[in-house]
Write a structure and sequence with these properties.
The chain has two domains: 50 residues; 114 residues, Beta Barrel (Barwin-like endoglucanases). The protein contains four helices and seven strands, in the order ααββαββββαβ. It has a six-stranded mixed β-barrel with strand order 2-6-3-5-4-7. The radius of gyration is 51 Å and the shape is rod-shaped. About 19% of the residues have low confidence.
Length: 222
Amino acid sequence: MRLFERRDRRRLNEAQTWELALFVAMFTVGALLLAVVLRHEKLPRLFAFAFTTVPGPTVDVVPHEEPAVASEMEEDEADAPSVANEKVTPAKGTEKPKVVAKPAREIRYYNGKKYEYVRTLRMRVTAYAPDYRCTKPYPGTHTASGLSVKTNGGRLVATDPHVVPTHWLVAVPGYAGGQAVPALDTGGRIKGHSVDVLLPTFDQAQDWGAQLLEVKVYRPVK
């Protein structure tokens, strides 16, 4: 009899186990479905792992702001008319157009003629004198333009006509007091960006040497 009683109790325990497992499974499924319906708001921590791939609702957190102490004072100041720093904005269509003045032309005069500034060139400036040692095989009494070396008081220069045409004016720093002098001469060694200033003596020309200077160029105005 005891043997049969033990078998009956063992079968009863197995049945109860299956019923308990079925109940737990149904409870779990029901809790998960309820959590889905309620958008996970009431999902217990125990089942939260099942919805880790579904993003929850976002909530914007507004930080607490301290009340402004001087807000009333600022409102009063905003309402009060400002006198010193007041800026008046003109209405649309009433603005006056800005007039931009054109830069004045730099004008020089020579021998009764008018010349205007063209450009500034960085040039190699040398010197020569009306001396045979500088002008040979020419006597050094006249320039390539046919005018005497005494033209303009002997203050003139030799240039490359392809860079500074003959009869234009140039202003060489340190020569003739910075005045614009005529380009009346040329030379076999004066090529490209080169200028040869005329000095009275051979020694003065030797003392000048060779210098790199900013030379202003002026052309005649017709």
